[in-house]
Design goal:
By secondary structure, the protein is an alpha/beta fold. The chain has 6 helices and 15 strands. The protein has helices at residues 20-23, 71-80, 163-166, 170-175, 190-204, 220-233, and strands at residues 2-9, 29-32, 35-38, 59-66, 88-91, 94-97, 108-109, 118-123, 126-131, 136-137, 155-160, 179-183, 208-214, 238-244, 250-252. A 5-stranded mixed β-sheet has the order 12-11-13-14-15. It has a two-stranded antiparallel sheet with strand order 1-4. A two-stranded antiparallel ribbon has the order 2-3. The chain starts with a strand and ends with a strand. InterPro entries: 4Fe4S_Fe-S-bd, Corrinoid_activation_enz. This is 4Fe-4S ferredoxin. Residues 5-34, 35-64 form the 4Fe-4S ferredoxin-type domain.
Amino acid sequence: MTVRKIVYIDEEKCNGCGLCVPSCAEGAIKIIDGKAKLIADNLCDGLGACLGDCPKDAILIIERDAAEFDEEAVKDHLEKENKPKLQHTHVNHGHSHGHGGCPGSKLRSFNQEQKTAVTEISQGDIEIKIKSQLTQWPVQLMLVPPTAPYFQDADLLVTADCVPFAYPNYHLELLKGKKVVIGCPKLDDVALYAEKLTQIIKMNNIKSVTVAFMEVPCCTGIVRAVEKAVADAGNNVSIKRVRIGIEGEATKL
């Protein structure tokens, strides 16, 4: 037994929908008596590929005493269950698993230097080519697992999802060099945002947090979520606040 990261399922939140089951490539989760259950510690790698598919946010990654992850045990288990063999996809220095859940929630990391897609901007005789500064996927805060390897030692950008539409220099001024999560504090649960951000900050040695939000009053909810997350994580992380006007102006607070 050793202290390590492992899935925890809150049965009070779980509604037994089963969306997490196909997302677990190791087959470590089953629906038993109407609730999702982790059937064996050694089948769980602790990466949290199942997190983004839970509509009730009933799945967390915690640290506790648990048996080591055992790929041989996983292989035997999958054979007995007649499920596809485990496949690995490497992301940075960690790895994620291919799985049967939504392809849009599969972890991906991009090499910025190898990007070929560019946007060309012409002004007189001057032509400027701009590359996207996005280096990871997914970006939705409710989809990313806190253990995504691209968060480790990162500068984090938390963005209200209207900001990239309103601010014309979003990629070069705000996103460049950062890992990003986005969300809408008006449409989603800000308390869940704060909880998820706390996990990300606490588990990944986040170096700094920038929160970009719109000038409309409801958008300050994402700022409050960031401030609570930093306080709850107990890390001495600096917060930069950037307010974006509806007409595109930026104000650093």
